[in-house]
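Board notes, transcribed. Complex of a protein with flavin-adenine dinucleotide.
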Amino acid sequence: SPILLWFRRDLRLSDHPALTAAVKTGRSIVPVFLRDGLLDDLGAAPKWRLGLGVGCLAEALQDKGSRLILRSGDALEQLTQLIDETGAGAVYWMRAYDPQSVERDTKVKETLKEQGVEARSFAGHLMFEPWTVETKQGGFYKVYTPFWNAVKTRDVAEPLAAPGEIKAPGRWPDSETLDDWRLGAAMDRGADVVRPFVQLGEQAAQARLGAFMASKVADYNDARDIPGTDGTSCLSENLSLGEITPQQCWHAGLRAREEGKPGAETFLKELVWREFAYHLMWHTPRLLTDNWREDWEAFPWNEDERKAEVKAWKQGRTGIQFVDAGLREMYVTGRMHNRARMIVASYLTKHLMCHWKIGMQWFEDCLIDWDPASNAMGWQWSAGSGPDATPYFRVFNPVTQLDRFDKDRAYVQRWLGKPGAKLTGDAARYFDAIPKSWNMEPDDHYPEPVVNADEGRKRALEAYENRDF
Ligand code: FAD
């Protein structure tokens, strides 16, 4: 009987343990992608980007003589229906770690097993299963450096090759179409704005990794912190959808380290930050929803999204150059440089004293590399409410940060334009992208700061000093 291969955020054919195991059985395979409630709940850009990735996977499967069957509805109901239609005796999938997916997958596994259907989940989205990394006392890690020390010398499985052939079933079940799903419907800035910045699919991801190792990793230690240069791998977009695996990146990083390339070790450490985020989310799912440090519940966060300064922040119009450049970059490209992510997050949570959840959700709506664990950890780290966080009193100064990380102003001028000059390139692209719902007159006027850097800092520190926790 056939095996249903349930694809989720693992949109690739190589280094795919579930697919490799299914092919090894010699049985026919029915690849499936389901549009369920969790997918419908995604933010605009991640949902649209996922749709592109699913389309690309479908093409890759066709090249192997296979197909991708699309169905919408409750995952368990759809799988059960497909089992009825195809006579499948097994369902294989790659494991997910966020609490909602875990709840869904546990129910699916238990029910299928009760029905006598083989249900198997495989590891691979992470290098280190979160429950396998334990402190000496048997707990989980709350601080990055000891986590890194615990995993850095572990063996990471060599990546698997893509299967040569994927055996088709005698008869294919019906499939819905991606066009009907309209996964880009919520992209009110227009998908065309962001599309040029996307590097889609497994082959593009491998090319990205190759280019990074060939020319960028050597300078990565310095260049990675300068948003005006193209100094990082940009692989987060592909890692987030499983178009490439951390194992593939890890082994490439190990090779670069053996070749003596200076930035390779730092790159490996960054991959482990991603693992650490999943480790935290798995052991404490409240990372996604509540202040990780419970005493922070008492902090006087502004939670009112309608406030003018929150709007100005989202729209990249706070009047603080580094902050606005970052937010405009994200709106136009679906990504934001890590340095800018830290600065915009610090400004929102400290200068504007807004709840980190507001920022986290805006990122979730805008990022094509959105990742539940890294996003939540990044926000709680920036706000000071997370484990291993930057202390609240460490307020990034968005003005002096410019002198350190954007000395030649390449980054802010790319996104805000040159003073006094007509807007061109990406700075103009942002104005073209402004949706009607923002009710804004497109102009090239640059606003005064909504909250001045020094005043904001003072206000935040006072609130922190007077906190009753
Ligand atoms: P590189 O510098 O090339 O690093 C290689 C890989 O290491 C990345 O692709 C990523 O998988 C991992 N990595 C690097 N830095 C981090 C980090 N700080 N935390 C976790 N993993 C890391 N990353 C996301 O992938 N999705 C998010 O939604 C996300 N939201 C963030 C929100 C905030 C407020 C902050 C401060 C950071 C966030 N990050 C997020 C982490 C980081 O900014 C991005 O992973 C990084 O900018 C991606 O660019 P890159 O692929 O070129 O990274």
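The longest strand covers residues 29-35. The first helix runs from residue 17 to 24.
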